[in-house]
Specification:
CATH topology of the largest domain: TIM Barrel
Structural class: alpha/beta
Helix content: 40-55%
Largest sheet: 8 strands, mixed, barrel
Strand order of the largest sheet: 17-18-20-21-22-23-24-25
Shape: rod-shaped
Bound molecules: ligand C2E, magnesium ion
CATH class of the largest domain: Alpha Beta
Number of domains: 4
Length: about 725
Amino acid sequence: MSARHNSSPLTRQVTLTVLTLAAFALAIVVGFGFYAAGQADNASLERQKMFIADGLQDQIAAVEREQESVSVWDDAIANVRAGNQTWIEENLSVWMYTYYGHNRVYILDAANHAIHAMREGKVVDASAYGEDQPVLLPAIEKLRGMLAQAPEADTSGQPAKLFAEDLVSLDGKPAILSVMPLVPSSDKVTQAPGTEYLHVSVEFINDAVIGKLARKYLLEGARLAPLSEQVGPAAVPLVDSRGVILGYIGWDQLRPGLALVRKIAPALAVALLLAGGVLVFLLRRLRRASAALQTSQDQAQYLAFHDTLTGLPNRALFEDRLRRTLLFASQDRTRVALLYLDLDRFKHINDTLGHPAGDELVRQTAARLKHTIREVDTVARLGGDEFAVILLDVPDVGSAEDIAERLLLKLRGPFRLIDDQVFVSASVGIALSSGSDTDADDLLRKADIALYEAKKNGRGRYKLFAGDMDDLLLRKRKVESELRKALDGEGGIKLAYQPVFAADGRGILGAEALIRWGHEMHGALPAAQFIAIAEERGLIGELGKWALSEACRFAVTTELPWIAVNISPMQLRDVGFAEEVAEILRQTGLDPSRLQLETTESVLLEHNDAIGTVIAALRQSGVHIVLDDFGTGYSSLSYLRRQAIDKLKIDRSFVRLLDEDQSARAIVKTLIELALALKVEVTAEGVETDAQKALLVGMGCRQLQGYLLSPPLEPGQLLALPGVSSADRELSAARA
Ligand code: C2E
Ligand code: MG
Ligand code: MG
C-alpha cells in the first residue's frame, strides 16, 4: 500500500479553492469598504470646496457691504470735497481698518489722484497709492466706465449703486479689492457725473480671514497657500477676473468615510479574525475529511487489487503485472518464468481441521513464498490454495527450476495451525516466456497445464511445461467441442449394453449401459477418456442425462429385469439429480425398481450431506444404487454397514488377479462374504476366463459380467439374446 499522504491532490485543490474564494471575498469587502469611504470622502470634499468658495464670496460681499456703509453718505462727499483729512481718517479710512479690518483704503478724486491713503490703520502719504496703482487701476477704470454710462438716476430718483470688485495680488498677497464711488445719501448734495470721488478698499485674504470662514464650516487647518506651494485636493484657487490664479485656500480635508472606516476597523478586524478562525477550522476539518476519503480510496484501491486473507496481489493485479512484465522483458530481451503453485490435498485439511485452519495455512504459505523470492519478483494468490509467482530476468530453465525446488522445500517444513501441526506439500507448474511474442494468457495456460501434469505425476513436485502438454490440451479442447456438437444433435453417441448373467446359469439378470462415441475423426474414443473430458469441461450433466434417458427408453422395450446406468460423481453432487431421474422415469415409463445407478466410491467419501440426501431420495423412490469398481478406492465399509447401497461391483483388477494371486483371492472372498452377510448384492465384473468364473461362483458370487459371458452389445444384438426381447419371452412361454 502506498504511503499515506498528508495532503492529497484533492485536499490541496479544495484548500486552494477555498482560500482563493476567501481572499477574493476579503478583497471585495475591504475594497468595497475603501471604495465607499473614498466615494463618501469625495462627495464631502466637493461640499467642503463649495463651502470655502461660498465663504469667500460672502467675504467679498461683506467687504462691499462694509464699504457701502460709508460711501453712500452726504457728509462723506462734503468732507472729502473740503479735504477734511481728520474726518476722512475717522470715518472713511482708519475706521474701516479698526471696525472691519480693511487693510488699505485710498480716496481718489475725479482724476483718480489719491487724496488720502491708509495702510494697516495708519494714514500714510497719499503717494503710497502709486505703488498699488498698477494692480488697482483695472477695477478703478472699469468703475469709471460704468459711471460714465450710467443713467443719472433711476426712476425712484436714487442714483444706481455702482461698484467694482476683484481679487488682486498686492505685495505678493491675495486680497479682496472693492471700489465704490462716494454718492450722496440725500438730494441735499448734488454731484455732477464724472466728478465722483472713489473709495478704494483692500482686504488681504490672510490666515485670519480664512480661519474665520473655515471655522464657520468646522474645517481645520485652513491657511493660505501661495502659488509655489504644492496643494492637496482640499484647496480652492483664488482666481481674479482675468482668470489668473493668485493662490489657494487650503485646509485639512475632512474625510468622514475614512473616519468611519477607522472607527469600525477594530470591530471589522475582530470579525475578520473570527471568520478567518472559522475558515481555518473548516479547512482543517476538510483536510481531515478528505484525508480520510483519500485513505478509504486508497484502501478500496488496495482491496480491489489485493487478497484480503494474505495481502498478496490478487488475480487482477497479477494478470496486469504479468502483462507488463512480459512487455518489458520482450523489450529487454530477458526471460520471465511463471510458477503456478497449488497445495496438495488442501481440501482435505480444510475438511478435517476446519476453515480457520485452512485460512491460516494459506496465510502462512503466502508468507513463506514471499520470503523465498526476491523483492522484484511477484507472488500472487489466484484463489483458494493457488498461487502464482512471476520471476523476472530468468537466465535459463535451470534457475527457474531451482527456485521452484526452493519453494517446495520451504513449504515442506511443518505448519503450526491453531492447534495442529501439519505437513503439506505443493505442486508447481513452470512456464518460461520465449522471445518477444509470449502472451500472458498463453503463459498462464502453459503453467496451468504443467501444474496439472505435476499433480498427475504424484504431487509434491514441479513440472516444466513441455510442448506435447500443449498438444494434449488442444486435443482435449477439440474433443470437447466435438462432444458439444454430438450432444447438440449431431449424433455419434450411442449406448452399448453388456449383460449381467446369473452365476447358476439361469440366464440374463440385467444389462449395463456403456456409452460409445464413434467419431469420424477421433475414431472410437475410450469411454473413460471422453467422460473425463466431459467432467472437466462441465458437459457431464448433459451427457449423463442423455445416457440415462436413452437407457431407460431402451429398457422399457425389453423384458430385462433391470438396466444399470453409470453415473458420474459430479452428477450426484447436483441437488436436483434425484428429481431429474424421477422425471426421466416418468417420461420413459420405466419402473424405478428396474433402474440401477452405478457410481464410484469417491463420491461416498466426500462426507457431503447433499450427496447423502440425493442417494437416499433415489433409493426411496425404488432406484438401486450400485458401488462400481469396488476395492480400488478407499472401500468404505461403513457404507456397507449402513446399508446405504444396494449392490457392489468387485473391480476388474481383482478379478483379473484371481487366477494367480493368493491375496487377491482372499480379498475377493472376504468382500463377497461381507456383502452377503450385510445383504448387499455382489457382481463381479471383467470375468474373462472360466477359471475366474469358477472361483467366483465358488466364493458365492451370484452375478457375473465380462467378456467371457458377453462383451458390450449393440441394442439389436442384446435383444437377440434369449429372454431379452418381449417377443422372445412370449415365444419361450409358448414353448413351455
Ligand atoms: P465401468 O462402469 O466399470 O464399466 C466396465 C468397463 O469394463 C467397460 O468399459 C466395459 O466395456 C469393460 N469390460 C467389460 N467386461 C470386460 C472384461 O471382461 N474385460 C475387460 N478388460 N473390460 C471389460 P468402457 O465401456 O470403456 O467404460 C469405461 C468406464 O466408463 C466405465 O467403467 C464407466 O465408469 C464409464 N462409463 C461408461 N459409460 C458411462 C456413462 O454412460 N456414464 C458415465 N458416467 N460413465 C460411463
Ligand atoms: Mg459400470
Ligand atoms: Mg467398473
